[in-house]
Amino acid sequence: MKKKLVSLLIVFVLTLSGCVVATPSENNELEQLRQQNQNLSDQLLASQDEINTLSTQIAELKKFSSTPEPVVDTFEGLAAQILPLLQNQNFSALAPFVHPELGVRISPYGYVNVDNDQVFTREQVAGFASNQELYHWGVQAGSGMAINLTVAEYWPEYVTSQNPAQEWGYVLDPSRKASNTIDNFADVYPDGHYVEYLQPGTEAYGYLDWQSLRLGFQQSGDGAYYLSAIIHDEWTP
């Protein structure tokens, strides 16, 4: 009886020992798992550092690549977009093309008169369709009479007149115009550029009924070019 009790006690003790004590092989496996986890953690941290470094480099490159470059070869393209807006008097669509800082100067003749020419902001241009105000635009060549007109009255007379009803074409040869008006655009806008359109006139009038339209552009602080001048020109006595 005593032997049986002793045997049972030994089995019980061994059973308890097996539950709380790991064998040497189990300890090795646990250590290997811990080491593998540590290695993976180190690799992830290293990868994150590389990603952070790469992100910083990309951000620096974007700073340089986002710097606006002056537009020097798209004036004809800008003018081609603007001309139909002028012809259709689509002022809300025209407004975003207007220079955000300088506005747009509107001249009834080729000689830009900085004292009399009207200058409008893009917000004012956007409201032209409903603007009934009478403006003084200058004086008529020859008669010297004041040009006091609303925008609606001025536009067909001194912007996109269709009398004669001809297509507007680029002015490639200035000699096609029998102009006696001084072109002082470069004096008023030394950093500006313009594209000029022409209605050549008719043979019946010896082509003295020609009309031209200059669209002037200047660069803004954002690096882009915007409309800064709408200049009508025609033969003057």
Order of helices and strands: HHHHEEHEEHEHEEE
Radius of gyration: 40 Å
Using the coordinates shown, work out and report the CATH topology of the largest domain: Nuclear Transport Factor 2, Chain: A
Low-confidence stretches: 2-21, 61-72
Strand order of the largest sheet: 2-1-8-7-6-5
Give the proportion of residues in helices. Answer: 40-55%
CATH class of the largest domain: Alpha Beta
Total E-strand runs = 8
What does this structure look like?
- This protein has 237 residues and is of the alpha+beta class.
- It has 2 domains: 2-65; 75-234, Nuclear Transport Factor 2, Chain: A.
- Helix content is 40%, strand content 19%.
- It has 7 helices and 8 strands.
- The chain has helices spanning 2-20, 24-65, 75-87, 91-94, 122-126, 151-158, 185-188, and strands at residues 104-107, 118-120, 135-139, 146-149, 169-170, 193-199, 211-219, 225-234.
- A 6-stranded mixed beta sheet has the order 2-1-8-7-6-5.
- The radius of gyration is 40 Å and the shape is elongated.
- The relative contact order is 0.13.
- Residues 2-21 and 61-72 have low confidence and may be disordered.
